[in-house]
Design brief:
InterPro entries: Acyl_CoA_acyltransferase, Bact_Acetyltransf, GNAT_dom. Helix content is about 25%, strand content about 30%. The two termini are about 25 Å apart.
């Protein structure tokens, strides 16, 4: 799997982006990238990605049953991040969690679809059968993106999370079976790199 990276991909506007595994020396540039993402978009993550302590488990090489981060670069500038998380316990070994963020200036170019496809492919290679996502129930744009990928609503927890102002929000749980994702691409003749979603 590591042999697949780095790889170059063509974006809709003609730019070439490089996908590669995250390295320790990327830490400063990674935090700078996260700071360019609007705070309300970062809030759906379980931890503060602008704090170095939160990113410690990302470095030192991919740990297949824990975390696998991929970055997208254009001209050595990070423009997107995608993370696949696995679980060590036997009960959840077939489940993964995936999320991604794409910089505002790089949206609408197909990068989000490409990053998603990379992680769905990786999850399949690792033997995962399903990917889950948890996000605030009022994050309609993010929900739309997950639906485009084939995720469906699986539950909602009321007043389950609090934002920085102490306001409670409902937590939406979504899931997608990996085989259903690839079947959807096959049925619609849509293939990674040729479509656009935001991010």
């Amino acid at each position: 799997m590591l042999d697949d990276y780095p790889k170059e991909i063509d974006l809709r506007d003609g730019q070439i982006a490089t996908l590669r595994v995250l390295h320790q020396e990327d830490e400063d540039r990674l935090i700078m990238f996260f700071l360019t993402i609007p705070e309300d978009e970062r809030n759906f993550l379980r931890y503060d990605v602008t704090e170095r302590e939160s990113l410690e488990s990302w470095f030192g090489g991919p740990r297949w049953n824990e975390v696998f981060p991929i970055v997208a670069e254009i001209n050595e500038r990070i423009v997107g991040v995608a993370v696949l998380r696995g679980y060590r316990t036997q009960w959840f070994a077939h489940i993964g969690e995936f999320w991604m963020l794409v910089g505002e200036n790089s949206r609408g170019l197909g990068l989000g679809r490409i990053l998603a496809s990379e992680l769905f492919n990786l999850a399949r290679d690792l033997g995962m059968e399903k990917l889950s996502a948890e996000l605030r129930a009022d994050q309609l744009v993010a929900i739309k993106i997950y639906k485009q990928l084939g995720y469906v609503h699986e539950g909602i927890l009321t007043d389950y999370i609090k934002d920085a102002q102490g306001v409670t929000h409902d937590l939406l749980i979504m899931g997608c079976k990996i085989k259903d994702y690839w079947q959807k691409l096959t049925d619609s003749q849509i293939y990674p790199g040729n479509t656009i979603i935001n991010p």
